[in-house]
Design a protein that fits this description.
The protein has 363 residues and is mainly alpha-helical. It is built from twelve helices and five strands. The structure holds iron/sulfur cluster (SF4).
């Protein structure tokens, strides 16, 4: 069913941040603009100064993201430069503000998980060493998100459905530090149910409304630890010449994904652990695996020389230092995600509900 209601009633741009107080609005808009500018600098560098752009994007921005998702994913979602672009039409009153059906949301959520698993291995084949290709990837995501932002209400457009980073946010952000203000939605239109931003201790298995959400929850919660582990056992290939080379970068991540997915499903079936607890264990494992391999490679101690290197610290740090760092990071994530009690905090504070004034798309 397509029903059309009038979007203009809310006076979108003027109400841009009614959920925040005046001073906070200016602070958040300033921070969003600064992070957006940084994003533009990185994007431009990827095209015109690829070595710098690749360093900034893959070896600084991306390695920080998982930690931020664990501790304060709401902060990331408030300032993500891609989100700022995608949500700009909504802030400015240019969006048609259709409400997406929950079935379409579920399908797009599953597509987001599959996109994540499809795109990330290609880093080894292409993106890690090709600035313009990475810029093209980012640009494609921006165009897709913007097109959806022009049609759909708030974060149902992209941030909580098709964005391929979102499944990881849901897995890692299950026990955040605190709920912070929502710096995008001025009032809640109930555009996503359940809203991942506003649900305490969100995890990817919670919305189990239909087969699509159940499958995406299983794939990300059970599969991500093995996928991460497998991904770090593939070297970067410079210059892929045939399809076989491209397919080879999928072998280890997909094998790892299948192993931990089978383990996750098996443990659930055998009822050896309660589902939320098991998901937290797999969440801690995935992010710990990431930093277990990523910290040494950033410092030049990785198993594949030069891959993912930020600085070569081998002449400065003792050989045992990377091991000490990864043990510390693993202990931190075990404490944060497993030992700390779930604190019933959501990523951001849900703004006041508004009466619907948007178009509906229940197809
Ligand atoms: S807070 Fe409300 S309007 Fe904003 S994304 Fe969540 S459900 Fe949608």
């Amino acid at each position: 069913m397509h029903g059309v209601r009038h979007a203009g009633a809310l006076g979108d741009a003027a109400r841009g941040a009614a959920g925040l107080t005046g001073g906070n609005v200016r602070v958040w808009r300033t921070v969003q603009a600064l992070v957006w500018l940084i994003g533009c600098v990185i994007f431009t560098s990827l095209i015109f100064f690829p070595s710098l752009g690749l360093l900034l994007f893959w070896n600084i921005l991306i390695p920080v993201a998982p930690l931020l998702m664990v501790v304060a994913v709401g902060l990331w979602r408030n300032v993500c430069p891609l989100a700022s672009v995608v949500l700009l039409p909504r802030h400015m009153g240019w969006s048609r503000r259709r409400i997406m059906s929950s079935r379409t949301q579920a399908k797009l959520g599953l597509a987001g998980v599959l996109l994540l698993y499809l795109i990330v291995p290609v880093r080894h084949a292409l993106f890690n060493n090709d600035g313009p290709a990475t810029a093209l990837l980012v640009g494609t995501l921006v165009v897709a998100g913007l097109a959806m932002g022009l049609r759909y209400e708030w974060k149902s457009a992209w941030c909580s459905t098709l964005c391929p980073v979102h499944p990881v946010e849901k897995l890692y952000g299950n026990n955040v530090f605190d709920a912070i203000p929502n710096a995008h939605c001025d009032s809640c239109m109930n555009c996503v149910v359940p809203c991942p931003d506003s649900t305490p201790n969100m995890n990817p298995r919670r919305p189990s409304k239909n087969a699509y959400t159940r499958l995406s929850g299983l794939l990300i919660a059970g599969g991500l630890p093995g996928f991460v582990w497998g991904w770090f056992h593939v070297p970067d290939h410079r210059g892929i010449s045939e399809l076989g080379d491209l397919l080879r970068v999928y072998e280890m991540p997909v094998a790892g994904l299948l192993v931990t997915l089978a383990l996750y499903v098996g443990l659930l079936q055998l009822k050896l652990a309660r589902e939320p607890w098991l998901t937290r264990i797999f969440s801690a494992a995935a992010v710990s695996f990431y930093y277990w391999f990523r910290i040494p490679s950033l410092l030049g101690f990785g198993q594949f020389a030069g891959d993912g290197q930020l600085v070569d610290a081998r002449g400065v740090l003792p050989a045992w230092a990377p091991l000490a760092m990864v043990i510390a990071s693993t202990a931190f994530f075990a404490y944060w995600l497993l030992i700390r009690k779930p604190n019933e905090k959501s990523w951001v504070v849900r703004p006041a509900y508004a009466g619907r004034a948007a178009s509906e798309d229940r197809s």
